[in-house]
Amino acid sequence: MGVVSETTRQSTVRDRLLAAAVEKLEASGPEALQARPLAADIGASTMAVYTHFGGMPQLLDEVTREGFARFDAELARVPRSDDTIADLLALGIAYRQFALDNPQLYRLMFGLTTPGTRRAKERDLTTEGSPTSVSEGISAFNHLVDAVTRAAESGRIQAEDPVAVAGQIWSAAHGYVLLEITGVFGHEGHGLVRTLQPLIINLLVGLGDTREGIEASLATVFDAGGAARRRSPERR
Amino acid sequence: MGVVSETTRQSTVRDRLLAAAVEKLEASGPEALQARPLAADIGASTMAVYTHFGGMPQLLDEVTREGFARFDAELARVPRSDDTIADLLALGIAYRQFALDNPQLYRLMFGLTTPGTRRAKERDLTTEGSPTSVSEGISAFNHLVDAVTRAAESGRIQAEDPVAVAGQIWSAAHGYVLLEITGVFGHEGHGLVRTLQPLIINLLVGLGDTREGIEASLATVFDAGGAARRRSPERR
DNA sequence: TACCTGTGAATAACAACGTTATGGGAGGAC
DNA sequence: GTCCTCCCATAACGTTGTTATTCACAGGTA
Questions:
Q1: Could you tell me which of A22, A185, A172 has the C-alpha nearest to residue A88?
Q2: Does the CB of A233 fall within 7 Å of any strand D atom?
Q3: In angstroms, how far is C2 C1' from B159 CA?
Q4: What's the farthest any 2 CA atoms get from each other in chain A?
Q5: Stated in angstroms, how far is A51 CA from D9 C1'?
Q6: Which SS3 state, helix, strand or coil, does residue B117 take?
Q7: From the CB of residue A141, how many other CB atoms can be counted at a distance below 10 Å?
Q8: Crossing angle, helix A84-101 and helix A197-206, to 10 degrees?
Q9: For residue A51, with 0-12 CB atoms within 10 Å meaning exposed, 13-18 middle and 19 or more buried, which class applies?
């Protein structure tokens, strides 16, 4: 389980098909995920989709699962430090970065997109995140729950119910990111400094931390590497 | 402009087609919006879609526009009182209620769903909210900006840039509502009291109001009518 | 009344999609 | 060698969005 063709030595037809689907999704949108063009991309016939996946819906489920695996891996790369609020902010930045780097994948992951596969078997909204991808989604969410728990334990914020608090932060980040993806915040950067940063700061203030403390933690996040990503515990 | 067949006396083919599309979207999902079944529903031939709309994409644009018009009308029904924070909370409740009552329409409005129309002409993400529906969307958003502006003028919160603050609240509500629609918060009601209410309260605390004041305002909102909707400015 | 014009709708056809049935060919088991 | 079992290519079927063609009918003019 994990990133495409991580275990297999040579690319199998199935792996190449899945990789081509992920790439094509981001390049041309969900409606471009069609059986015939996809198979043609890897030099195979349409039947490959059915022998390896069973059909387009199952292939899309695998794309979703792959997306959650990548998302999980990306969030796992965010380091942990003594500054629990800085860690939380870094997690939020990584969250946004992944969504901005993979907008189509992000929307597909959260069941917000219904690709061409029109003969889909009446997907239910509540079960849309296909069962196979649920575990990966929970794993990604747990990074946030852990960060909230540690922030609460450090005394910076109050979180009797860390899962509920993580749900609040998740809602805020999810909503912001989707609005930014759809372009409502205009050109690059304005949304981040005018909306996401104040939103998270205000939320953390409401959760008990001080504005000064948050801004100090935010400064350390941006100090460490310019691109707002601290790759390893020690400074590079 | 507005709700379907608001001006025309007798239902035209176009109006019936649009109304059937909106109804069918909510009943059977975006992939059910197909030219032939839709035309058959109103007893017409497929050509009606093309003579009146030009094609399925344009019909979907009209559905989106209609959705924003209804959303705007629903938000406009939220009354204004002396308690500006209560008004803001009531607006949030109405926002959530509309999304929960019309989940498919809500997702289509925000470009988060890509219905069957597979031959779509390469929609761009940034321009996905079709131009015709932009004005209605802005109108709906302005209700929130107004409420924030009034709350700032009343001194309850600090909002130097009301549009930016409205964007923060919008992000939080949008993200929560989408997560609730996809079912991540479990069964009815838990998400609201465990996530949305604390989220908005914490955010408003971060914006300068006191927790006690917010909870008092929230109580007045729920007092006035049980269903959390105050129909007229004066208390009933 | 007779005639022209234009708009709207039905019929039929076309290309492309997801899917399924059929058949062939490569690689191991005995 | 012979058989068995997967994969995969080919071809077909039903359905989709779309377009071309044709027809019907309402309204104005002589």
A1: A172
A2: no
A3: 75
A4: 60
A5: 13
A6: coil
A7: 19
A8: 140
A9: exposed
Residue A136, CB-side half-sphere exposure with 13 Å CA sphere: 24
Chain-chain contact of A205 with B205 (C-beta, under 8 angstroms): yes
Please judge whether A202 and B207 are an interchain contact, meaning their C-beta atoms are less than 8 angstroms apart.
Answer: yes
Q: What is the pLDDT along chain A (236 residues), one digit of tens a residue?
A: 445 433 344 568 899 999 999 999 999 999 899 999 999 999 999 999 999 999 999 999 999 999 999 999 999 999 999 999 999 999 999 999 999 999 999 999 987 665 554 444 334 333 444 545 667 778 889 999 999 999 999 999 999 999 999 999 999 999 999 999 988 888 767 899 999 999 999 999 999 999 999 999 999 998 765 444 444 344 33
| CA–CA gap between residue A47 and residue B25 (Å, rounded) | 32
Nucleotides of D under 7 A from a protein CB: 7-12, 15-21
Query: Is B64-223 a domain of CATH 1.10.357.10?
Result: yes
Task: With CB atoms and an 8 Å threshold, state whether B194 touches A29.
Answer: no
Contacts of B103 in chain A (CB under 8 A): 125
A110 interaction partners in chain B (CB closer than 8 Å): 178, 182
Decide: CB of B90 under 7 A of nucleic strand D: no
